């Protein structure tokens, strides 16, 4: 079971999932559009507040919009890719998870490959549109490094959000009510880290830097791209490297997942 | 009439059993409330422009919103959704009850039981720890109480409307997927309505959603005078009535062309 073969299997899974969803093309287009509108409405809140207050502790609307774009694109990718983990709780309850254990591939791979939820493209397009608008308004002088950092941050963020969903799924081995707590971390995290982390009180800043390190994929990379000095005093090199923390986070949560699978006892039904 | 009363009370008692969900929800609401409060704090510190609401008022408004979030028509009745999907909805037609009123009764339980369980501890904690304040005056408190009843009725009518649209979509992600964002933003849940630009406020105040959040909370704060109660309550009832008519019409159409799955 080498990496090449696993990747091949993973993409085969995705191909099947995509083909399945494309059987209902009209439904797909409508759901994506509805999802797009829903997420656009969320941005209204940011617009309204900047319209009233002008700026946020030295941050302009376009700068916050840039961060908002990165976080939302990252979240949309993880949201589309981790649907299998999202519904995992019901698999444990029904006993369907046992079937996955009998197959000659890792459970994480099978769950990740279960569905690529294409309609999440709605949030993706919304985030991308806002990101492009913000980048234009800010007149960023793009370098290869900066473009690379945006992509790095987006995927680091997707990995981090995926990690949160893996934790949520793993908790389902022991608890049934875990879902909403984790939802508050994912959706609350998307909302909270769309704003610069420095606007919050210290304990809350630390929460999003060290505990659920979402600031490492929104706040710090944005500083590097905008060329702002950090009120927290981090060096530029750190701001470039910190999306790595997202991937590390996912790797750690997958270890937790393996621990959960090891101690899994079927409901027997 | 007694049948519907029994239905409400049975559903109410069933929903009160979900205590652990309420505890989890309580922590979620505290978390979101704190984020909202801190974002507003930061905005208030950044600007010396005159604002349509004071910071303490915004804080109380936010906590009221978090306390009563379960009252909003943001989700559908899961059991009802399952009935439509499985075809079990056909049993609803056999009962000697009006289907719309029966579903409305379920909605009343859905919009009150979880809200009561979450709001009481949350209001206590927010008052003790997070600077939430009481109603502006006795009149404000009374006006709040009346319009909260209006808000529940309106919420039930919208909930029923969303539930009925499920008869047209199988995935349950049509209107029910789209409704929460609209409700959250235009009710004032995410940003209090007075912060919207004036032109937008004119529209939002006509729309039904302000009746769910903004109307009762601003009466509570004394930000809207209690003497406007008649007009505001009327707005809530008018929209409730409109959603009931629309829901009834859609239900009768839906039942006429109903194809039951399963066997």
Overview of this structure, please?
The complex is a heterodimer of chains A (269) and B (263). Chain A is mostly helical. Helix content of chain A is 72%, strand content 0%. Chain A has one domain. Chain A is built from 14 helices and no strands. In chain A, helix 9 (144-171) packs antiparallel against helix 12. Chain A is globular. The mean pLDDT of chain A is 86. Chain B has one domain. Chain B has 263 residues and is an all-alpha fold. The interface between A and B is large, with 35 and 36 residues.
Summarize the structure.
The complex is a heterodimer of chains A (about 270) and B (about 260). Chain A is mainly alpha-helical and about 270 residues long. Chain A has 14 helices and no strands.
Total strand count of chain B, please? Answer: 0
Major beta sheet summary of chain B: none
* Helix and strand pattern of chain B: HHHHHHHHHHH
Number of domains of chain B: 1
Number of helices of chain A: 14
Q: Helix/strand/pairing class of chain B, anyone?
A: mainly alpha
Instruction: Report the portion of residues of chain A in β strands.
Output: under 5%
